[in-house]
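User: quick one, fold this
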Amino acid sequence: MSIAETVSTDPTLAGPYQLVQQFYARQMRLLDDGRAEEWAETFTSDGVFNANAFPQPVVGRAAIAAAARAAVDDYARRGIQRRHWLGMLSVRPGDGEELLVGSYALVVETPRGGTPEIRSSSICDDVLVHEYGTWRVKDRQIRRDDIRPGA
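Assistant:
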């Protein structure tokens, strides 16, 4: 039975749900630990990272890695530790072996010697594919709550 079939026939989603949770735990830890290139490897080679805070989507693993590296280095230079929390996961089957995952995302920033602060609250919608024995993000769409459509 395929992963997608398991998701659609298992009302508890325990198996795939836990696998997806583990994927996000690893993925966000890579980014928060400053391992931008390894984080980018969790996207397909033609993956898309799009956010309503960006002027245009970032397309392709190399471009995603470069953008993540620039951000990680900027936060490190400013002495800010970022932590990403993804929760309230909704996992459902997509086309073929794809999983459609929706989540809430919080970004917490802690300046060196300072107090943690929630920096952003977002909706994150991913298309995950199983590729080479691991999950990868094919498409990520992030909608920050503080940015109105068309603003």
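User: anything notable?
Assistant: The first helix runs from residue 3 to 9.
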